[in-house]
Amino acid sequence: MSQEIRNLEPQALWNKFADLNAVPRPSKKEERVIEFMKDFGAKLGLETFEDEIRNVIIRKPATAGMENRKMVTLQGHVDMVHQKNNDTVFDFDTQGIDMYVDGDWVRAKGTTLGADNGLGVAAIMAILESTDIPHPAIEALFTVDEETGMTGAFELKAGVLQGEILLNLDTEEDDEIGIGCAGGIDITAVAEYDEEPTPEGSVGYTITVKGLKGGHSGMEIHKGLGNANKIMNRILFDGFDDFGLQISTINGGSLRNAIPRESVAEVIIAAVYDEAFVYDMQAVVNEIKSELRTMEPTLEVVFEKLEQTPTSVMPSMAQYYFVRSMYTAHNGVYSMSADFDNLVETSNNIAIVTVGQGKLAVKCLTRSSVETAKMDLATSLQSAFELMGCEVEMNGAYPGWTPNPDSAILAAMLPIYEKMYNEKPNVAACHAGLECGILGVNYPEMDMISFGPTILGAHSPDERASISSSQKFWNYLIAVLAATPVKQ
């Protein structure tokens, strides 16, 4: 771990982030970070325990003079998205994140950084460890498995938490105060098909879509970023129609909440089309590159001839329906909010596509701040895939977070921000899935707000955290805790 990270200001925050990032913490494999957090609380002599699902809760008494303030629950999730570049050798199960400073940014070498939500968790740890920061009674809630199911929030029972105010430190723009978020649902379409032998006189190719930016499928879905699965399908569609291309395998995307950056397909064509195929398909690739040249300047589509031709392929009729269903399935922004300016209301991310050995699967994450709109788009996707003969499952649904315009902590936070930074913050709902909506089911009276430092490229190896923004976030958090409303 580079010492330059630990030397950054505020050192209390960056040292805790460095400590945390030394601990492997993939979603659904949080055993080590859970023990790390429990040891941290125990060494401070604070009340520390885990609940039934293994969320960790640590409580710290109010500092002198703050005993009459409302108790604050500081909340963040300990798991992180694990993504790496294809040429990066890294084992997320055993290695800590390798970080470095790049101007005003902290980055990781070829992997996700874990600033989502590691910086929020580190800030909470620094508050718990502090001896000179005024604050009310603090209850730290460290949830598990936020990134792949929000399991920790879903399984947190009523009556565990004691706080009246919850500050979720998982927003990724430092001028934003979050008061609402979208809900979501996972959609999985699966089918089986009888593979057929590759026709004689065929040649095989690997088609690779790469070089896309990727990113968070909620916070960055509006940016017009390329989706590797949709780009691949467009290429396969044209190759099928023009050259009788047949699919052997496809592997695209890896996480539902990440816009897919890469897709790889093995295909066959008749040898007679060999030269014309690569030449003509390059024209299709150039069209796609031209369309995406502003947002995806490093997009590459590579055709490589295989030394060994695949021995089996998807039948032409099954492929006919598959590529057309993929074309029909909506990806990206579906509708914008009528109530909040520039807020995506409903969207879908075609996140993962796998084909091979007689099975296919398409996995999507549909989001919306309006429950009925979420289900409308989900039903549209279901219909598209059922028409090709897929079985479609909808699961993993989670609720949105309804804004509370009468929030007492929001009323306290706004003038603090304006005084500190001479401007008004952006009070908004976001299109990401925050845990606040889920936690609010069992804690409906809890006053909730979300904020955090600026983080770009979350859920991708381009993830980076602003150093100056982290300083701003830290100073604001301290000021907000000092101004916590008095108990009623």
UniProtKB/TrEMBL annotation:
- Which GO terms fall under biological process for this protein? proteolysis
Concerning InterPro entries, the annotation shows: Peptidase_M20 (IPR002933), Peptidase_M20_dimer (IPR011650), Peptidase_M20C (IPR001160)
List the keywords (alphabetical): Cobalt, Hydrolase, Metal-binding, Metalloprotease, Protease, Zinc
EC numbers for this chain: 3.4.13.18
Chain segments annotated as transmembrane: none
What are the recorded GO MF terms, alphabetically? metal ion binding; metallodipeptidase activity
4Fe-4S: present as a keyword of the record?
no
Any one annotated GO CC term:
cytosol
What cofactor requirement does the entry state? Co(2+); Zn(2+)
Q: Where does the Peptidase M20 dimerisation domain start and stop, copy by copy?
A: 208-293
The protein's matches in CDD domains, at most eight in alphabetical order, are given as: M20_pepD
Q: Which reaction does it catalyse?
A: Hydrolysis of dipeptides, preferentially hydrophobic dipeptides including prolyl amino acids
Q: Which PANTHER family match?
A: CYTOSOL NON-SPECIFIC DIPEPTIDASE
Family of this protein: Belongs to the peptidase M20C family.
Q: What is this protein called?
A: Cytosol non-specific dipeptidase
